[in-house]
Each structure stands twice: as structure tokens, then as C-alpha cells.
Amino acid sequence: MNAPAIIKKAADWAVPYWTRGPAGRETPPDLFRVLYYGWLVALTLKLLGSAWDVSWHFKWLRDDLAPPHLLNSAGTAVALGLTIVHGYTGYGVDKAALRLIQWGTGVFLVAVPLDLINHRVNGLDITSWSPSHIMLYLGTFFMIAGVIRGWFTGAPPGRERTVLLGAFLAFFLENVHFPEQHQEYGVLSIGAWDNHATYAEPILLRFAADQMGRPVDRAMMTAFSLPVPDALYPVYAVVVGLGVLVAARMLIGRFGAATLVAAAYVGFRTLIWPLLTVAGFPPSAVPFFLVVGGLCVDLAFAVRHPVLRALVGSVGVTAAVYGALAAQSALMGHVYGAIKGQSGLLGAPPLATGSAIWAGAGLLAAWLAFEWWGGRAGRQPIEARVIATATP
């Protein structure tokens, strides 16, 4: 079958569904699957573009039409199309999921021109933690959160629901961890400089040095490669990265869920690393410690109920507080230890061990928030609560 015939067949199938309706309307199962597999395509394109993007910017002077940006833009175009379909037809989403997707897509689209203006005014944006970049991550954050909610509440129970839910959560983890890649690329770039080699092209180094008003030396390389405090990397990884894995374990509701979501993201980073380096792009440190964190999350969920019953019976304090306190202490210690071990073996950003207290406090707050949310949603297993808006 040729391309025009395929397009005509797809149009004939889709046109009857193009009717205006409120969010939450009953969605035919085949249409529901097409919409969310479309999101899988959109997020995959954005993932491939973002995976290439940081490496590109550690080698070449910035270009608005750089291939990674075009690849990411293709994914954004698909996402925008799906957002319009959801908003017009009301198919495949409830009101909350639709609002998350619409706001996320809107914030992302507003952030794009702001980021271009920022680069026009300020030249190189030396850090991935800048306000315009954070807006891009925030828009994607809400967008994927809406997709997760839509799939979670609408997909019928079964293996497909579990697998795609895990995939969407892995995309979510990639998005929140994305700014940390600046330090993961940066630490290896400094190591290369110390070994009398550079990954960046001379034009990029010269431009960055001129913008900083200093020669191309190690101080300039450090300011370019590690422009944020050392404490930010481990604290953010523990609070935000592990927070996503806790949410993944609660949503999927099975032992191994957090480990597999972390392993999916880390596995992708491990796969893309040699492909980029063979093509001449800089390497990065891979956050293998997230897999350790995911395993600790799964173990914490596996043991927390009998332990909490014993603690509550003897002391009489809230189970959630004990669970969160025990879990965050174990998780924080293992992740900080894993980062330290990885630093000596495979490379990792500098570890400010004194930041552990802030990481622990943040993870405790996140864990308690998830416990509160889980208790508010109901005491039955979370994976059993499926809203049948997309089932026959």
C-alpha cells in the first residue's frame, strides 16, 4: 500500500471521531490506544532530541536550528497536535489530565521564544539551570504529568497498561533529571582538560571565555562546565529524582517498579553514550546511582508495612511519619554512597557530603507528601483505582 492510500485510510478512520465534546467523554478503546501511542512517539522524539542536545552544546557554538533542536521540535509538533485533539474532542482525558497537558504545552511554547530572546541578549547561556530553560522543563513536566494521569485513569487493567505507565514515568524521570546532565557532562570535560584534551571546538571555548572576560584556562573551563554549587547535584537527585521513583512505585503498585523505571532511563543513557562518542560528541557521566535508589525505594515499600505496624504498636505515632523517616534515611545514605563510589570508578559530579542534611529533609517532605496523597486517594491499592472513561 502506497503512502497516499495509507493517509486516506487513516483519515477515513479518524474523521468520524472529530466531533467536539467535553473532557472525560467515553472514548472508544482503539482511539484511546492510538492517542497514547501517539504520545509515546512524541515523547520519544523529544527524548532523542534532548539526549543529543547537551552533548551538542558541550561541543559546538549554539545554533537555533541545530539538529537536536529540530528533533525535539518534531516531538513538540506531535505533542501540540495531540493536545489540540484532546482539547477539541474531549477524548482520552478527564478534566484534570486535559488541564495539565494544555498548561504544560502552553508553558513550553511560551518558553521557546523566551529562550531564544535570552540567547540573543546574553549570548551563551552557560547553565542548563537558567530561568528560560527551567520553563522548558516545567512545561514538559506538566505535559507528561497530564499524559500519565490520562493513561492511568483511562487504560483498562492489564500488562499493556502497566508497561506504558512505566514508560511514561521513565520519560518523566528523564525530564526532571535533564538539567543535572550539565554537571554530568561538565565533570568529564574538566577531566579531559586536565589530561590536555578538549571536547569543545575552539570557537565555543573562545566565545565562552570572551563572554566571561578571561582567557581560555582551567578556571574558565570550570565556570563553563560546573557553573552551579556542588551541593545542587546530589540534593536534586535525592529529592526530585527519588521522589519520581517513589511516585512510580505508588502508581504502578508492584515490587520492582521503581527499579525498572530507573533502569529504563539509565539504560537509555548507557546506550546513547557510545553512539554519541563514536560520532565525535563529548561523553557524560551516567547516573547509575539512580538504579540503586530505585531498588532502595522498592525495598522500602516491601518492608515498611510490617515494620510500621511494630513501631506504631509500641510507640503509637503515625505510620506515615515513621515510614517516611526510615525510608528517606536509608535512601539518602545509599544514594550518596553510590554517587561517591561511582565518582571513583566511572566518574560523577563533585559530591558535597554536607548537603546530605538538606537532601534528607527534602526527601522526607516529599515522602510524607506522597503518603498523604496516597491516604487521601484511598486505602485500597492504588493500581486498582481505574476511572473507566476510556473503557468500552
Q: What does this 3D model show about the protein?
A:
Helices cover 73% and strands 0% of the residues. By secondary structure, it is mostly helical. It has two domains: 27-228, no CATH class; 229-383, no CATH class. The radius of gyration is 22 Å and the shape is globular. The model is unreliable at 311-317 and 378-392 (pLDDT under 50).
Labels describing this entry:
392 residues; 2 domains; transmembrane helix; disordered C terminus; DUF2029 domain-containing protein; membrane; mainly alpha; transmembrane
Please trace the helix and strand order, writing H or E for each element: HHHHHHHHHHHHHH
* Share of β-strand residues: under 5%
Average pLDDT for all residues? 82
Span of the ends, CA to CA: 31 Å
Could you give a short description of this structure?
This protein has 392 residues and is mostly helical. The protein is 73% helix and 0% strand. It starts with a helix and ends in a 15-residue tail after the last helix.
